Amino acid sequence: MLFNRRYCNKLLIERANGISLPIIANFLCSNSGKAVQREEMARTPKTVVLLLHHGQPRTLFYAREYLTKSTSDFFKIPKWLAATLINSTWRFTSKTRRAVMNYKEDKALNGIIEKYSISLEKCLNEVIPEFGPISCKYAFLYENPNVNDTITKLIRNGMDRIVFVPLYPNYSCFQTGFLLNAAVKTIRNITVALPESVETNDSHRITPMSGVSFDCSVVDRWGTHPAAICFWLDHLNGKSRFFDSVLFVAPRLYLYNAKEYEREVWSNCQRIMDHLDNKVWCLAWYSGWDQWMVPFSESISSQLQFLQKHGRFHTVVVPINTILPTFDSESILPYLLQKMEVDLAHPVDFSLTFLHAFAELIKNHLLGRPSSAQLSIFCKYCFDKNCVSTREILTNRYSKSMFHTIAL
Question: Is residue 386 part of a domain?
Fold first, then answer.
């Protein structure tokens, strides 16, 4: 029945056919309420893909804040002590200040990731509509939008599943691990797991006093996936005839099971070289924009000397651990290589090849491919209880009693 204003007034005045005011009001309210409810359900994403990254500061002021938070997390010290340390050594951080001052708006990390997230969302909704509507968001650990606020908002709006995707191809506890710990900590503060008598899977979360419940999972490492391999092959195949060797470079990480990170980087390099025609290659390390300059073996200069010693003078340098233009690829590496006759392969702002391969990676995960079994392994000397919580929620390979035994 269609009610216009004139007809409603007539009904209200004459109560035609015995229909009373409460009945009319209930009819109108129920229909409008259902329409609003349907509209809200259409807007609520069924699956959320959350891209995670540490972020990059925009100015020197934010650089100090970034380094303070990072130092506090790395050394497990209070922020006031970390701030004191950063302020007292700030004049010795010429590398960091140079990288931030060379910052370009067209290379803004959040703008590049946002472009990828929009395209990825459209691609996933077309490829796997059965999991839709799919929403793709991004968050940073030390910048805005930050991980805590973003996840809190997503839970408040409601969803059926959230997939965490760190934008670091090779797993490291300091990069990927810290991101996952921060995300899981927020989830644990807001939600609870089902009682053990009902469900033993901690990845299914419920928001108390609310109708929101969801599953969470992670794509924790993808350095050897075709998404990362094809990204660099697109750069190298076209100019392979112009170079006789490849020097892969990656930031040197310390502590936090750094040896596993180094093995993964090496494996990534080997996968790429399997597709190139008999090229000599080496792996070198450098200190990133947010790290102290520390001397170590297998540096960029020493590895280039090694290649030249064996008659390889046409070398291309590949920053293997990033697929996004960062301070390292746009400032630190050009500065280190300025007096060396080599070609630096810069990550492009946007790659359709990488986008499609990355969408395939997430599609396979949504269709049932689990996270890496390595995620369930603790660092040899790990004492961080947040790591226990992360593995309880994002993996289901061991019993809770075993996790608690390891934590103790």
Answer: no
